[in-house]
Design goal:
Length: 112
């Protein structure tokens, strides 16, 4: 089992969710986050004053998947989140040793 963590642009959330639903992913966690990578932020002008925006709004998705669904999940996220512009985000994969569904007591892949 794996945890797929993806950092994407906020306006791509619905497209990514739809792509994951289309491949049978039934659950994910979404968190609003701020950060920067190669973008290093940008500047904005508000009422004639220039401001540096160093931490940009992003969305962090966390999805627990069976190992055999990993590549399909990553492909769905990447294809739906890609704009071709800097700041599209990243996907990270973390090993998941154990999972338990609290309501039923199901464990590991059955709990996903």
């Amino acid at each position: 089992m794996k945890i797929v963590m993806a950092i994407i642009k906020p306006f791509k959330l619905e497209e990514v969710r739809d792509a994951l639903t289309a491949i049978g992913i039934r659950g994910l966690t979404v968190t609003e986050v701020r950060g920067y990578g190669r973008q290093k932020g940008h500047t904005e002008i508000y009422r004639g004053t220039e401001y540096a925006v160093t931490f940009l709004p992003k969305i962090k998705l966390e999805i627990a998947v069976a190992s055999d669904r990993l590549d399909q999940t990553i492909d769905a996220i990447v294809s739906a989140a890609r704009t071709g512009q800097i700041g599209d985000g990243k996907v990270f994969v973390i090993s998941l040793d154990h999972a338990v569904r609290i309501r039923t007591g199901e464990v590991d892949t059955a709990a996903l």
